[in-house]
Design a protein that fits this description.
The protein has 211 residues and is of the alpha+beta class. The chain contains four helices and eleven strands. The strands form two sheets. Strands 1, 4, 5, 6, 7, 8, 9, 10 and 11 form a nine-stranded mixed β-sheet that branches. A two-stranded antiparallel sheet has the order 2-3. The radius of gyration is 21 Å and the shape is globular. The N and C termini lie far apart (56 Å).
């Protein structure tokens, strides 16, 4: 009986090890970002164009830029995104983020903490899910802000914190909905509890998805 059990276990393990792994992500139904772009990001940002590239599996960027500063605001790390994401990010900062910072805190933003930009991976890093918009440079994640007066606000610590911080973070998130097609953050799911996710996913039925 012991020998039969061991043989069965060996056959089971062999079947598992010889089986093909599921693909890292699914690309069916995923549409690449728009390629045309109205404004060169170098007109409003410290940015450099990136040569078009493809990783051969759905990931890659066309008409991409690496951003270091936007509207004079430093980024905590360079953000690699499409031209359209750069443009929309600039508009959001100029029309929403900076005015809200002035209104609520009476100061300017010195730095934006970037949690993620281009990354070849599935949505929410869940194997077998659809290709993330990050995999096409069509998304950017924001983890927090530093201000000229030395104050810092993070999504992880302050989204449900003091009233002023809560108002600032929730209002800029709400106003991102529309210019960006997908806006996610704390309360959306466990994957977005510590950052605000912004993307320009195409062909989302029923308008923007902001949750």
């Amino acid at each position: 009986m012991r020998n039969i059990t061991l043989v069965g276990l060996a056959l089971f393990l062999n079947a598992c090890s010889s089986g093909e792994k599921s693909p890292l992500f699914e690309t069916t139904g995923v549409r690449p970002p728009e390629q045309s772009c109205a404004v060169d990001p170098r007109s409003f940002a410290k940015a450099e164009p990136v040569a078009d590239f493809s990783e051969g599996n759905g990931c890659g960027i066309r008409n991409g830029f690496r951003l270091y500063e936007v509207d004079g605001i430093k980024l905590s790390q360079p953000a690699l995104v499409t031209c359209n994401v750069a443009n929309t990010f600039h508009t959001w900062i100029q029309q929403t983020v900076e005015p809200k910072a002035a209104q609520i805190y009476g100061t300017r933003i010195d730095e934006i903490t970037i949690a993620a930009s281009y990354a070849c991976r599935p949505r929410n890093n869940v194997r077998g899910g659809k290709l993330s918009e990050h995999g096409m440079g069509n998304a950017i994640d924001i983890a927090g802000f530093k201000f000229d007066d030395g104050k810092a606000v993070t999504v992880a610590s302050d989204y449900y914190g003091a009233r002023y911080d809560r108002t600032f973070l929730s209002s800029i998130r709400a106003d991102a909905c529309g210019p960006f097609h997908t806006v996610l953050g704390p309360g959306s799911d466990s994957h977005h509890r510590d950052h605000i996710h912004l993307d320009l996913q195409r062909e989302r039925g029923g308008g923007p998805y902001c949750h």
